[in-house]
Amino acid sequence: MKSIIIASTSTLHGGNYLEYLLPTLQSHFKNCSTILFIPYARSSGISHDEYTKKAAQAFAAINIKVKGIHEFENPEEAIQNAEGIFTGGGNTFLLVTQLYKNKIMQLLAEKVKSGTPYLGTSAGSNICGLSMQTTNDMPIIYPPSFQTLGLIPFNLNPHYLDPDANSQHMGETRETRIKEFHAFNAIPVLGLREGSWLEVKGEKITLKGNLKARLFKQNETPVELETETDLSNLK
Amino acid sequence: MKSIIIASTSTLHGGNYLEYLLPTLQSHFKNCSTILFIPYARSSGISHDEYTKKAAQAFAAINIKVKGIHEFENPEEAIQNAEGIFTGGGNTFLLVTQLYKNKIMQLLAEKVKSGTPYLGTSAGSNICGLSMQTTNDMPIIYPPSFQTLGLIPFNLNPHYLDPDANSQHMGETRETRIKEFHAFNAIPVLGLREGSWLEVKGEKITLKGNLKARLFKQNETPVELETETDLSNLK
């Protein structure tokens, strides 16, 4: 049975790394003594080692050890043997490129579908959708494909940001960008604000956290969804 | 001799489409009775026809006719015969995909390098750099390559946005995204704020408009450049 947490962000303003999620993660990873960390997205360009250390520090608070996938000689074996898996944020283009390069995109999807508990934040959440095509990140590297894990039957826009009515900036709003996506793609897109996450238990998908999320469907007016909304039938 | 205007945005807050640039464009396109418009980036997802009409309305104020490249049976011939060329903004992934699909990426570069006056705004400016890898746009479509026209020997970030000190949003700032780009790429990136543009005359590249621009180089602290700065030696 799938058991997945898909979080908009790792960190809330004024909080520490993963702090707001720790109570949820304690129960989510309750059967894990060690989890596998995938640091490929290299948040702010930091190294795999630095990033893994940061994750380990956060998980130490709930007595869970963290090992980086780059510490294993064989990334496929690392995935196969993992008790639980966490993919951190950073650059989605880089993350997806590395998952393909290390030939673990499909394996990771199968492993999580078979019931291994998974946590994604930001870029690590983006890859849970059907494609990475609604990421906010810069295309700093050319991935072999935009297709991702497909753990849920729609796409995500993490760090969803509402248009700022006072802004004089004329660059596209997030909503305009998603509208452009829907000019060519029929996949629904869920804008997850910072502090929201999706809980996936088997085939049940539920919106969690204190905030509403914004749902974009092709040729439809976007709608606000309340927390605890059941998204199992969204596709 | 190259003659190029590379603008951060088409429209300033409170202004009309291309309005702030019209005096510059009048002299830039002074020998053109008709210019070729490339609407492939489909700003906000509008159609090629609608977008071309919008461009034509703006250029009517300076007595220049506009014809969309999609109105020609053969896009290559349209480029070859153009007196002047304008590529509008929208989605850079879509623009680049269409340029490759219609086999005109290289031809457009050669045509502009041979002296045909060119105007780019936003996505149409992004493609003037070495690659589209510092775009702000969503990857709504998978282009065959991220390489672009290379009319200037560095990359651009149009609509450059300074970090908002009051923001509680934890998504990456523009500066963080460019830093991630520089973890893998040595190409300098010029952040062009809305209202700035580059003027290229032969090999001379000059920063124009009333604002400073922000220059990012790999492993260096970003610097602010004054308007009228000569960028001919930047690479």
Strands of the widest sheet of chain A, in order across it, are 3-2-4-5-1-8-9
From the alpha carbons, calculate the radius of gyration of chain A and give it in angstroms. Answer: 17 Å
Count of individual helical segments of chain A: 7
SSE series of chain A = EHEHEHEHHEHEHEEEEE
Termini Cα gap of chain A = 20 Å
The largest chain-to-chain contact, stated as pair and per-chain residue counts, equals: A-B, 45 and 45 residues
Number of strands of chain A: 11
For this structure, the quaternary state is: homodimer
Report the helical percentage of chain A. Answer: 10-25%
CATH architecture assignment of chain A: 3-Layer(aba) Sandwich
Query: What general outline of chain A do the C-alpha atoms trace?
Result: globular
CATH superfamily membership of chain A: Class I glutamine amidotransferase (GATase) domain
